[in-house]
Amino acid sequence: MKRIAGIRRLLNIQRNRAGIERAVDDELRFHFEMTMRDLMAKGMNSGDARQEAERRFGDVQRARKTLASIDQSRAVQQRRAEWWSGFAQDVRYALRGLRLKPWFALAVIVTLGLGIGANATMFGIVDRLLFRPPNFLIAPDRASRVYLINTFRGKENTQSGLSYRRFLDLQEATTSFDAMTPFYTRKLVVGTGDATRETRLAVSGPDMWKMFDVKPVIGRFFGAEENDVQTPKNVVVLSYAFWQTQYGGRKDVMGSVVDIGSSKYTVIGVAPEGFVGFSNEPVAGFLPIAAAAARMDPKWYATYNMIWFEGFARRKPGVTAQVATTDLTHAFEVSYKKQLDAQPKLTPFALAKPHAFAGPVLRDRGPKAGSEAKVATWLGGVAIIVLLIACANVANLLLARALRRRREIAVRIALGVSRGRLVMQLLTESLILAVLGGLTGLAIAQWGGGIMRRALLDQASSGPSAFSDPRILGFAAALAGAAGLLTGLAPIFQLGREDVATSLKTGSRDGTVQRSRLRSGLLIVQAALSVVLLVGAGLFLRSMVNVKNIPFGYDGDRLLWVDLEWRGVEVDSIQGVQKRAELVERAKTIPGVERVSRALTVPFWMTWQLSLFVPGIDSVSKLGDFTMQAGSPEFFETMGTRVVRGRGITSEDRSSSPLVMVVSEAMAKKLWPNEDPIGKRLHVVADTLPWTTVVGVAQDVRRGSLTEPDLHYYLPIEQFRPNYGGLFVRTNGAATSYSDQVRRSLQQLMPGASYVTVTPMATIMSGNTRSWKLGATMFTVFGTLALVLAAIGLYSVIAYNVTQRTHEMGVRVALGAQARDVIRLIVREGLTIVLPGIVLGGAIALFAGKWVAPLLFEVSPKDPSVLGSVVVTLVVVAVVASWVPATRASRVDPNEALRAD
Q: What is the residue range of 7's domain?
C-alpha cells in the first residue's frame, strides 16, 4: 500500500511536520552528545566540554530548521516519485490488459462515448440558450433585456418588443444605465441579379458598440451622426465572415457600395471575427437603425404603434437589477401617459397598469422563452439519463470482468499486493476508459452539434466547435472524470468484499448469486431509466402525430410563397398589376408547377385585420379576431382549400363588380349561428362603404394557432388591393426542391434591381411545429439508445450467470430437465430482473408528467396507450435478450458440465 500511503503523506505534510522536527532534534542531540564525549575523552571536564560543543555547533535552531527543511523536501520528492512511479505502472498495466481484450475495451469506450457525446452536444445547445453571454459583451452581469408589461382586456401581457418612440422615452427618463440600444435582426436581400441572396443582417443603435469589447478589423463603426432620424446615412459594417466569403478579405472594400434590400449602403468597416451583437445567429452586417427604417413610414420614429425591435441596456456599476427595474417602470409609466395624450382611446392608465423590468439578456432565460429552449432543457436532462444508463452498463461490464478475474485478484492479494493498490489499479483502468470515451464523445458532439443547432436554433453554421470551445471541453472532461469514478465503484465494491481463501479454493463459481445482486441492481436502474425515456419518446411522438393530423385547410408541403421587392423601381398601379400577371403566367410554365395564385397574406407569417360591420351585432371585434386574405380566382385550388358551400372567387369578381366575400365555417358559425351565411351582407373597413355579400363558405384554416381554426374570410384581390401582394405556387411534389428553380425563372422578369424571394410554406410553418418534432426525434433517439444499452446489459448479466451455472445446468439436464424447462427458467430470471425496473420507471414517468405536459400537444402525460406500449416493448426486449443465453444453456452437455469447474 506504498502508493496510497505516499499520497496520504504528500497531502498531509503539515501533519507530519512534528514528527520530522522530533527526528531532527534526536539527530542533533546525538551529535552534540558524541562531541562532548570526544572532548571529555581528551581531558576536558563536562562544563568545558559542553561550552566547546555549543561553540562548535553554533546556532542550533538554525541547524534544526535547515535539517528539517532538507528532510521534508527529500520526503516530498520521494513520495512524489513513488506516486508517479506507481501511477505509471498502473497505466501500463491497465493498457496492457485492455490491449489483450480489445472488444471489451471498444464496447466500454463506445458506450461511454455515446453518453458523453449526447451530453456534450446538449450542453453546447443549452449553454448557448441559457448560460453563455453574447461574445465580447462587457460586464454580462450588468446587461439586461428590456421587458414591458401592461394589462389589456383583463389579461397581463409581457413583451420585449419596442417602438422607437418608446425607446427614446425610456432612454430619456432612466438614470440607471450607461448604455441603451435597440437591436433586432431581419432577413434582407443582398446583391443584384443572379447573385441576389437573402441573408440575415443586424440593425442597432450606435450605443451597441459601447456594450461590447470590440474594435473594427478595418475602417470604423457607425456612430450617432449616421443614426440621425432626420438625415440617416446608408452605411453598413460588414461581418468578418461575410467580408471573407464575399470579398476575399480585401482591404479595398472600404467605400464600396452594397445593395441591401431596396437601398444601397456604403461599407465603412468590418467587425471582428465571431461578433454577432445580441444575435444568436450569424449576420452578414450591421446597419444603423435610422437607415434601416428609412423605407418605412416617414414618421416611424414618432409613433408608439410600430413595434419592431428589442431594447438592451447595461446598468451602471453598483446599480442592482431591482433598482434598474424600478427606474424602467417609472420611465414606462411616463411614456404611457405621453401615449395616452396622443391616443385617448388607449386603455386607461389605471386599467393598463404599465410596468417594466430589466430581465436577463438571454431571451430564453426570461419570460418569453421559446418552446425550443424548454424542450432543449428537458433534452439536457434526458442526455444525463442516457449517460447514467451508459455508466450502469459499463459498471456491469467492469464488474463482470472483475468477477472473471476473481482468482487472479485473490492470488495477487495472497502474494502481498495490498487491496489499496488493487483499488488504484481498477480505478486507473476505469479512468483510462473514461478518457478514451470522452474523446469519442467529443467527436460525436462535433458531428452532432451542427445537426442539433439546425434542429434547435434553426442555424446551419453557428455555434462552437466541440474540440475548440473551452466550456464544452471542460464539461466533457468533468463528465469523463465522473463517469470513470462511477463505473469504477462497482468492481472496487466487489473487491472490498472478496474473501481470499474462498476465492483461491473455488475460483469464480462460489458466491455468484450474491455478487450478481449488484449487477442486477444496476440493470434495474437501466430498465427504469429506459422506461422514462421511452415514455417521453412516445408522448412526443403522439404529439407530433396529432400536429401532423391537424386540418390546416391547405397543403403546406406543396406551396411556395413568392414575395416581390421592387427595390427602388418606380411601378405605378397599372404596371404593378401587369407585372404580377406576367409573373403568374411565367410561373405556370415552370416544370413541376401545377397552379399559381396571387395572394395578400401568408399563414403564420403575415396577417391582415379589417373592421367589420354586421347588421344586428354591436361590435364584431368583441367576438374575436377576424383575419383577411385576398386572392385571385385560382386561390382555393392553389392552396388546396375546399369551398364547402356556395362558390369561391371567380374571374367575374372584378373591381367594377359587386363586392363579394367567402367566409370560413368558423366565421359563419360565429357571426350567423344556426343561419345560412350565403347571401348575408356586411360592411368591410367602414360602414359607409358598399355592402359586401357572402357568396361561399370555405373549410376552416389554421393560420395563427394550431389549437383552433381562425375566424377567416377571403376577398377578391381585384376588388381590394390589385397592386399588392405576392404569389402562391403549388408544385406537384415537395415544394422545397423547386424553390431555386422558381426564383431563377421569375427573377428574369423583375425590372432593374428589384427581386423576388421564394420561401417554402413548410419552412414558414416549421417554426410552430419544431419543438414537437425535436422532442419526438431526440427522445426517440435517446430512448432507443437507452433500450439497446439496457438490452445489452441484460444479455451480459444473463449470459454471465448462465456461464457461472454451467455445472448446475448440467445437473438439471442430467436429472431429466427438458430444453424448454431450462429456457423457461432463464427467461423467467431475466423478467424478474427487468419487471422491477419497469415498475420503478413507470412511477417516475407518471410523477414527471406534470412538468412535461405543457410541452405536449393534445396528449395526456398519463396516456395509457403510451405506457402500455413501453411496458410491452421492455418485456419483449427482456425476453429476446434472455432467449439467446437461455438457448445456449439448454444445449449444455451434461457430461462436460459436470466435469466443469
A: 2-87
